[in-house]
Amino acid sequence: MAGRIPEKFIDELLARVDIVDVIDARVPLKKAGKDFKACCPFHDEKTPSFTVSSDKQFYHCFGCGAHGSAIGFLMEYERMSFPEAVEDLARRAGIEVPREARPIADTEPRDLTAPVLQALADADQCFRRWLREHPFAREAVEYLRRRGLTGEIAAEFGLGFAPDGWDNLLKAVGTTEAAREALAAAGLVVKKDGGGYYDRFRHRVMFPIHDHRGRLVGFGGRMLAAKTGDAAKDGPKYLNSPETPVFHKGRELYGLYRAREAIKRAGRVLVVEGYMDVVALAQYGIGYAVATLGTATTRDHMERLFRHAAEVVFCFDGDRAGREAAWRALENTLPVLHEGRQVSFLFLPEGEDPDTLVRKEGAPGFEERVRNAQPLPDYLFQQLAAQVDLNRLDGRARLVELARPHLGKLRPGPLHALMLARLAELARLPATEIGRMVESAARPPASREPRRPTESGGRPSMVRTAVALLIQHPELAGEASDPGELRALDRPGVELLVDLLGLLQARPGLKTGSILEHYRDSEHQPALARLAVWEHPAQGGDVAAEFRGILEQLRRELGRAAVERLTNKARLSGLTPAEEAELKRLLAERHSRDPV
Which SS3 state, helix, strand or coil, does residue 112 take? Predict the structure, then answer.
């Protein structure tokens, strides 16, 4: 059925369907206070940390971070698309899904991604067709054959071909200005300074990139034989799509969506360095490999991987660059590593990569290497110990100093305790003494100057607390008489606070789950999801009074800023009569509120 599902219908649907019933039909839930609990269906665990709130119509796993509404659960658990999940819930509620005949205002978040996704889909069809039919595709086909890939595996991964030239894609699908703008927003063409566009991907084998929901969100292109030998003209050997509204390199992993079932069967995920390695390994039956997209492994990557498997194995070249990449991966893994999660490192022989090695040794030989990969704790202590002389007292002291900041990143628990014991053994010190030293390294120095509260750390800011209160208690939006005035504040998160207040005042009655659905494709969605379960200082008290107090403090801050601005202007250039009246009013308000 054509047309977009109205936002208002989604709100009404989520209000009529109880998320507890939806999830309980698939994952048996047990009552736990006012909420319900179960072992998380998205990662292995023995102690239930998966919570479902009937009041908020929201689920959250405190172990792996999975969260969302009833729609989000069906998309994640049943691997449904967004429209499929809505249709399923509508059938449960016995109602029909309406469709809009035309898109609504361009300011709606979901509409902004639709042209981009369509442009990517159109380009994908072109690249695939050109690999089969283009007169100059022979070079791309020969390259894939030399790398040992069959036509079947190339088709399975949707590989394509971008011919040499500046406007092949533009001519094929950029026939209108709207289409060209969508191609540019998708990162497929580049806008020239003087007007016009040109194709970003030229003379390359193309690898489509899908996000964890299965949407095509970008491409990776591997340069074929260099034309000039000049990198400035030919471009880099590997080229990924730039950051776009739907593609974020620090979050996505090549091949993850396709590898989900293989990862589940293997109980592990293998992280390699390139998309050709992923495809080659899959051809040999090792389907649980994924690749980062030209960036170092991030904490977002790790959290996403641990949702699919408890064991992650990094595969790197054994050279200096590979070792440096492994160390960066280790540093980003430590904060999310705890009992039940395992990380190992596999370093390949010099001159080999997964593609070449699996062809030499076959799948059994390669998988034997994966099983024997070096555990992260062993690799950490091996690398640190190599920098000191353990036969010297000062060498062992130096080892402790090197290890302290790394172990300080670990969460308390059995793994943390075992690694402290291993460090104590190497340093020949009591484990209790080592624990005290590591704890002091993790704790900020008392002499450090206090930071201004921000949205990212430190004491929670007023704006952060206000957003958390709203997402958990949407009825508080009625306390704000004029949210728009807050936009003048120079504080992180104010735009989100104002936007959220506007949404909740326009659509009273929304629950937490419905709010998150409104921000599904927004950059704010991850932060809102965290705040939905954040135990803020006002929790358990009078949240309405706390919220009113925050609004009052923010308005006072607005008044102080306005007084300062007008006072400075009066001194420099003078005020208009209207500005003089405004300054007098603000000063009178301040005096009545804070008399000397």
Answer: helix
Q: What is the pLDDT of residue 125?
A: 96
Q: Which helix (H) or strand (E) holds 187?
A: none
DSSP symbol at 267:
T
Report the alpha-carbon angle 542-548-553, nearest 5. 125
User: What is the average pLDDT score of the chain?
Assistant: 84
Alpha-carbon distances of 360 from 267, 278, 284, rounded to whole Å: 25, 16, 11
Banded pLDDT at 589 (limits 50, 70, 90) = low
Query: For residues 123 and 172, what is the distance between their CA atoms, to the nearest angstrom?
Result: 9
Residue 152 CB neighbour total at 10 angstroms: 9
Strands of 136-226 (E only): list them: 160-162, 189-191, 197-199, 204-210, 216-223
Smallest Cα–Cα separation from 208: which of 221, 223, 219? 219
What's the predicted TM-score (pTM) here?
0.61
Greatest distance between any 2 Cα atoms in the chain? 85
Closest CA to 326 of 348, 351, 347: 347
**Which domains does the chain carry?**
7-93 (3.90.580.10), 109-240 (3.90.980.10), 256-381 (3.40.1360.10), 387-442 (no CATH), 462-593 (1.10.860.10)
